[in-house]
Amino acid sequence: MNDGLKKEQILGIIEKKNGEKEQILSILMEIQKESGKNYVDKEWARIVADELGIPLTKVYDVLTFYAMFSTEPRGKYVIEVCNSAPCHVVNGSAVVQMFEEELGIKMGETTADGLFTLQYVPCFGACDIGPAVKIGEKVYGNLTKEKVTELLNSYREVSTCQK
Amino acid sequence: MEFFRSHVLICTGTGCTSSGSRLVISGLRKELEERNLEKEIRVVETGCFGFCNLGPIMVVYPEGVFYCQVKLEDIKEIVEEHFVKGRPVKRLLYSDPNTEVKTQEFENIEFFKHQKRIALSNCGSINPEKIEEYIAKDGYFALGKVLNEMTPLDVIEEIKKSGLRGRGGGGFPTGVKWGFAYKAKADQKYIVCNADEGDPGAFMDRSVLEGDPHSVLEAMAIAGYAIGASQGYVYVRAEYPIAVERLTLAIKQARNLGLLGKNIFGKGFDFEIDIRLGAGAFVCGEETALLTSIEGKRGEPRPRPPFPANSGLWGKPTIINNVETLANVARIIRNGWEWFASMGTEKSKGTKVFALAGKINNTGLIEVPMGTTLRTIIYDIGGGIPNGKKFKAAQTGGPSGGCITAELMDTPIDYDNLIAIGSMMGSGGLIVMDEDTCMVDIARFFLEFTQEESCGKCPPCRIGTKRMLEILTRICEGKGVPEDLETLETLAKTIKSTALCGLGQTSPNPVLSTLRYFRHEYEAHIYNKKCPAGVCKALLSYEIDPEKCRGCGLCARNCPVDAISGKIKEPFVIDNDKCIKCGTCMEKCKFGAISRK
Ligand SMILES: Cc1cc2nc3c(=O)[nH]c(=O)nc-3n(C[C@H](O)[C@H](O)[C@H](O)COP(=O)(O)O)c2cc1C
Ligand code: SF4
Asked: CB of B286 closer than 6 A to ligand 1?
């Protein structure tokens, strides 16, 4: 089995939601969050299917429908850049460039150290401070070049502390 | 009860948290403790004041002094000068971007002066994490009143007479909808709060949940009593972590005080609320899709009828209401329908919250009586357009809506007037665009959004929007042909009349509306191969004015594709075949010799 999550952890997550079929979204979100690589592995999806008593295809139905899920490993931190109109109007594309330069990757890619993935998402309602990005549960707005550098460094530091 | 001589309110909504309000709060607490002032001055963590681009925001009562962009470094000065010596710190007061006049009191700032805050009345004035503060503002009084004095039909009648219409976009009369579900016979009924808010440019529901979660819970319980439901769900986007956290806490607190759960107020009424998370699919905001998503499936819409009020969640009668709609309910019960109906226009009562975003000085959340004009919103409240630019249009209704042009600025904004001018209220996102915005590009952008979010269930939406997007992309790339406009219009009509759900049906609106008001911009792209706003890259060209060029060569050194050549001290030239229109040269030139056409 791959290094991410152990079977017991997944069972624990399912149990927290009382093994209810309807809670599949929350269960998969929790698994994705705990995976450390922001994705849901096929093996984990199979465990969920077995435990909830539904076919694996149904789990994949859900995984592929909702934009938040990924079935491929991503960076530890997924940098979600808004690409909806409000941020576009205030020059969101400049922000993309800043991240691309600072990280040395293109939109949609993951850094070699597995720390960051850069990806587009639709509006997450931070238009008041656009152009905005979201990393995990944190939202960062009114971005400038300095802020982007500072931001990435703070995540890099946290990550070295945890090692 | 403890007595404090001052209350300091600091916003902990998403906007201010992102600009560092948590740091300011902990810094302030520490400073107050060090000076032994923590028993005299109380720090209250509140929801959003709406003035988000000036965060972190701090308001000091009883004076009502409004500080903006407060930083950790400012704390010592605020405590020393204001709290100890009683002299507000002038430097941190709000300064009007146009007149530069500083205003001390909150109520006198233009941004707040023209507003009427009802749905947002508690946002920014109470601590959303303390149910006691909500109760102190008459919270849960309406629920008590309903259970003690009113029959379910009384409640429905009261809401009907108030004229409240759904704030989630459709504008359907709330009381009428409740009436349908009341009449439906079933052993179980449900109340669902729609907090999926995926409309680009809208964030009012987020702010209400972050700043006043109990107002939504109380309204759901009232709705439950009115239609005979004992279970409610809040379907909220997982992208709103602060809102989810506060809702979870609020539900727990309400349960502990017996305001949710069994036998509420000893009146034999049971009502429970649970949270369900949305996982990033715009179409799940559509009510039938939302219901299938709560049931744990792909959130695809289904045809209506049957309407959810008759057959909704697990086939049971279900009322789905938007967050802002619900935030008005308890206030209507408390103050009476006459009070609510006295505000607004003939067919749109009460107030509406708008989220100001885009090219406007004061981005943030505002609430105004229905019927307020765009002019008041943009110039008086929004502080106008930044950098002296000219207003071009404002988009309402997001990807389902259309634009309001400068000529229509004095139209009173309500549900019906917006539809008449080819837009719609939507959830209240208002994206302001200035002369630098290309309307073709914007239409393309919105369509790209709907195209991406289309669930794919029905062909008109799945394939039709794709065709439209291809045409728009072509026009923006300078490859448009004269027939394109007509094809766009035909496609739009077909999609509108044949798509299954609201997402598809409204997706052509941004294109139709820009075609109606800015046809000349489309034509300029197609016939003259020019983008009048200078946005569409393929249609731009950069030129060096030989008169102004000093021949320093800086541009040539910075051009990433070596498209600029020349001899030092002589005018340089750009080879437009090589140029990738990145604009670097124009940025670098110290003599303003390079222009974009
Ligand atoms: C594509 C689409 C997205 C929608 N998104 C939302 C939304 O995010 N929030 C919302 O309250 N209503 C949304 N609606 C409207 C809902 O279908 C429904 O009309 C509304 O929640 C009813 O509540 P109300 O009567 O209180 O407005 C959406 C509709 C469509 C077609
Ligand atoms: S109109 Fe679009 S989003 Fe709605 S059901 Fe059809 S394909 Fe899905």
From this structure: yes
Q: How many CB atoms are located within 10 Å of the residue A13 CB?
A: 23
Instruction: Calculate helix-pair angle for B152-162, B174-183, nearest 10 degrees.
Output: 150
CB A85 to CB B237 under 8 A? Answer: no
Q: At what angle do helices B465-476 and B519-527 cross, to 10 degrees?
A: 60
Residues with CB under 6 A from ligand 2: B 283, 301, 454-458, 461-462, 499-501, 503-504
Tell me which residue has tokens 């002296």.
B388
Mutate to test the interface with B, among A27, A80, A121, A127 (most CBs of B within 10 A): A127
pTM of the entire structure? 0.90
**ipTM summary value:** 0.85
Q: In this complex, which of B279, B395, B429 lies closest to A25 when CB atoms are compared?
A: B279
pLDDT in tens, B334-349: 999 999 999 999 999 9
Nearest CA in chain A to B431: A86
pLDDT value, residue B394: 95
Q: Return d(Cα B240, Cα B225) in angstroms, integer.
A: 28
Domains of chain B by start residue, with CATH? 6-110 (3.40.30.10), 131-341 (3.40.50.11540), 351-434 (3.10.20.600), 439-528 (1.20.1440.230), 541-596 (3.30.70.20)
On chain A, the residues whose CB falls within 8 A of the CB of B19 are 129, 141-142
Query: Residue B82 is which amino acid?
Result: H
Question: Could you give the domains of chain A?
Answer: 7-65 (no CATH), 77-161 (3.40.30.10)
| Residues listed for chain A | 163
How far is Cα B183 from Cα B179, in angstroms, rounded to an integer?
A: 6
